[in-house]
Amino acid sequence: MGKETYYFSHDSNALTDTKILNMRSDYGMEGYGLYWAIIEMMRNEETYKLELNKNTYRAIKTLTNTQIDIQKFIEDCIGDYQLFKQEEDKFYSESLLRRMLEYGRKKEINRENGRLGGRPKKTETKPNGLQSETEVKAKKTKGKESKGKKNKVKEIKEKENKIKEIYNSTCTNLPQVQKITEKREKAIDNFLQEFTEEQFQEVCDIANCNSFLTGNNDRGWKADFDFLMRTDKATSVLEGKYGNTTPNKNNTLKELKEEFRHEN
Fold first, then answer.
1. 252 — pLDDT class (breaks 50, 70, 90)
2. Are residues 242 and 210 in contact, defined by beta-carbon separation less than 8 angstroms?
3. Sheet architecture: strand order including 49-51
4. What is the model's pTM?
5. How many angstroms separate the CA atoms of 76 and 78, rounded?
6. Which residue among 39, 111, 188, 192 is least crowded, i.e. fewest CB within 10 A of its CB?
7. What are the two backbone dihedrals, phi and then psi, of residue 131, each rounded to the nearest 5 degrees?
């Protein structure tokens, strides 16, 4: 097992983080050590997530030899301290997940730069100081690659803006998107690998008319852009797993106006 398996970045001021302090006030430094032991276990998982079950509790108990009630500690870290997040039958650290995604992105960039840098260089200089045919071709190729990258970036930005426009114009009953952050850029890229823009439009149409997703639930919770960008949640929306969808007055009025515009 290589050294990379154990790597993850760690803030030097984590000890005084507000959430950590809240946890330490109840569990002390033993809880602090237990927290980082769990983070290390998450790091060694392919998805950086742990199963929320008795087998995990037993494994943590065995590895740490702590006297702390593992199940209660994890439940407190999820519910009270918000150090962990729960996703169905798993739990994870948002901070660790973010750091590892960034680490993976930088690693991929470095690998690509190394691959490009390792290409053999051919240079020929004529006695008269003029550029050789090889040098001229190399510069033309480099110019084409640069132009191709710019076009690719432009294409990506256009897709991101299109997704944002679809959401904001359709999901009038949900929180509006103000900015496409780096995290959202990655989410959009992942989403469009599995769904089309037309399918996202359908997801938004359903979500905006869905009673549960628009706040009619016991918590008053509403879905948002980040929720719908998750491929598993988008699939659930399309499959109708959040209950019946009924059109609201705003949508009905919008549709009538659109039909009137086309007819005239």
1. very low
2. yes
3. 49-51, 90-92, 85-87
4. 0.41
5. 5
6. 111
7. -70, 140
The β-bridge partners of 86 are 91
Extract the tokens encoding 99: 């750091």
Domain ranges, ordered by start, for the chain: 3-97, 148-264
Would you state the structure tokens that stand for residue 42, as one six-digit string? 């998450």
Which residues, other chains included, contact 81 with Cβ-Cβ below 8 Å and sequence gap of 6+?
19, 20, 22, 23
Q: Encoding tokens for residue 58?
A: 């037993």
Q: What is the torsion angle, in degrees rounded to the nearest 10, for the CA atoms of residue 233, residue 236, residue 238 and residue 239?
A: 170
Query: How far is it, in rounded angstroms, from Cα 202 to Cα 142?
Result: 41
- For residue 103, the tally of other CB atoms under 10 A from its CB is 14
Which fold is adopted by the domain 3-97? Arc Repressor Mutant, subunit A (1.10.10)
Q: Which two tokens stand for residue 214?
A: 């628009």
| Structure-block tokens of residue 193 | 């690998």
What tokens does 96 get?
């660790």
Angle (CA) 168 165 106, round 5°: 105
pLDDT digits (tens, 9 = 90+) for 61-113: 999 999 999 999 999 999 999 999 999 999 999 989 998 888 888 888 888 78
Beta strands 49-51 and 90-92 are antiparallel
Check if the beta carbon of residue 214 is closer than 8 Å to that of residue 174: yes
Question: Are 63 and 37 within 8 A, CB to CB?
Answer: yes
Whole-angstrom CA distances from 247 to 112, 173, 209 are 49, 11, 5
